[in-house]
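Final report, closing paragraph on structural work. Over the funding period we assembled a curated collection of sequence-structure pairs, and we close with a single example.
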Amino acid sequence: MHRSDSNSWIGRFHFATVEQLELSLSVVRHCVDQLSDEQLWMRPQSDMNSIANLLLHIAGNLRQWLICGLTDQPDHRRRQAEFDDRSLATQEQLLRALSDTVAQAIETISKQTPEDLERVRRVQEFDLDGFQTIQNSTSHFQGHAQEIVYMTRALLGDSYRFRFVPQENSDTAPAGPSVSQSLTPSPETVSAKHSTNGPSQPLPSPTIVLCYPVEDRHLTLYEQHLPEATIINAGQEGVGQRIFEADLFVGHAKVPVDWARVVEQGRLRLIQSSAAGLDHCLVPSVIESEIAVCSASGLFANQV
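Its predicted structure, as stored:
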């Protein structure tokens, strides 16, 4: 990293980004170091990923977005192969490959000038500037790192070793809302973001479009907790058209969506991604709009 710029905004941006990449790698390493090679390749279900597959996926994303994406190097990524891999590579091999990729990504980011960061380039099927490219990939890494924590704890149970446990002083700790209360916006907060004349009222009967592997029990939960809502289970085959009926969108569109037209329509209020990354929806038109966007980072219970 170029320390000569450490007091400038570009230096601070480099530092904060690199720090986040190194932190995510540290979280992953802490988990992987506690697992055997066999545990790394265990899949909770046949249609779900192992931790080893997630490590391959993270490295593939970093390489495509931060190394190739920021330098215009040829991109030869085969994304699906990251999930299909059954090579049973060892813990050491997986960590070394990811660590080397993170080091290359950090070197690339540290060389980015303000002009580089403002330049729009094509990554996957998205036209993004350098800031957006870096933000997408680092948040994607962070989200999967938390997923790996969850999976590791599920595998190890009480034998899981925590990286850090904050010490609380119950006599001096200030009273206040719980973490879940603090991080969960009220309907009024979400609605206010879409109003130019002060807070608006929550939608009385929203239409929610779903695009993820929806199960019957999910639909039952929607009916129980949101009886006034209209639920559209669009799936990948229908999301490109049904998205225009949505007040709220929950899922991960893997097919092209005309987000610019969605924004222009002015109906959609919230995108709740069912994935850790936001590369499928965080395009310039959405970023510049009043649509609230949430990822699944850190929320690895059953999708609801």
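The chain has 13 helices and seven strands. Residues 1-5, 172-200, 298-304 have pLDDT under 50 and may be disordered. We thank the funder for supporting this effort.
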